[in-house]
Specification:
Radius of gyration: 17 Å
Number of helices: 10
Number of domains: 2
Order of helices and strands: HEHHHHHEHEHEHEEH
Helix content: 40-55%
CATH topology of the largest domain: Rossmann fold
Distance between the termini: 31 Å
Strand content: 5-15%
Number of strands: 6
Structural class: alpha/beta
């Protein structure tokens, strides 16, 4: 773990993941997957929730169909997954602990972006409902020419949209899939949430339990604000 690569450094931009990092939506994805399995009278394969975390929803729909032996249902399950997820978010849009405070603090000093595997309308809907969307300069999602995480494309594009090289940007992620994408793009990475077992944890420069981490907030206040020429 190379904590000094974060706390001794001031990024030129920050790129956040959305699901599970900014928004408490991983539980909605899990609930949506369970709705889909029930809708098609299928049983979730053992350990599927962990394998699906951070996976693009289209790939997730295909994976659900393949692992249940029903590949012909991939398109239908994908459509159903997005429909159930959107409905659940509309009922309960909640930001992750500390997300709003960190975003509002850093947005005063740095360009911010979101890099997500979710569709653009879903990401913007979630952030708007949580009153966070206006703080972001760019929202970059997989699709068209941008491959989903764990490919680096969305992080590379988000950093460049902010006008900085990936090496000068910080990624904030909650999944191993996302950490791999950000690291492959060249960003430094803070992982948020339960620390993964084994070598997966070493892909991030720092793992913290939540965005309320006092050391992270002290760093943001001291290093980021102090490096802002406008301050």
């Amino acid at each position: 773990m190379t904590v000094h690569r974060i706390f001794s450094w001031s990024p030129a931009a920050i790129v956040f993941d959305c699901d599970g990092t900014l928004m408490d939506t991983e539980r909605h994805w899990q609930d949506a997957r369970n709705h889909v399995f029930r809708e098609f009278a299928l049983r979730p394969p053992y350990g599927f929730a962990e394998r699906a975390k951070g996976v693009h929803y289209i790939e997730c729909g295909s994976l659900m169909a393949q692992e249940t032996g029903k590949p012909e249902l991939a398109d239908a399950m994908t459509h159903s997954l997005k429909r159930h997820f959107t409905a659940l978010v509309a009922e309960d849009p909640v930001a992750m602990p500390g997300a709003a405070a960190l975003v509002r603090l850093t947005a005063r000093h740095l360009p911010l972006a979101v890099a997500s595997n979710c569709p653009l309308d879903v990401v913007e809907f979630c952030l708007e409902r949580a009153a966070l969307l206006s703080h972001f300069d760019h929202v970059v999602v997989a699709g068209n020419t941008l491959r989903p995480k764990p490919h680096p494309d969305v992080y590379t594009a988000a950093a460049r949209a902010c006008g900085v090289s990936p090496q000068d940007a910080l990624a904030v992620e909650d999944s191993v899939t996302g950490v791999e994408a950000a690291r492959s793009a060249g960003l430094r990475v803070v992982g948020v949430g339960p620390r993964p077992a084994g070598a997966d944890a070493e892909r991030a420069d720092l793992w913290i339990d939540a965005l309320t981490d006092p050391d992270l907030l002290a760093w943001a206040q001291a290093r980021i604000a102090a490096a802002d020429p406008r301050a």
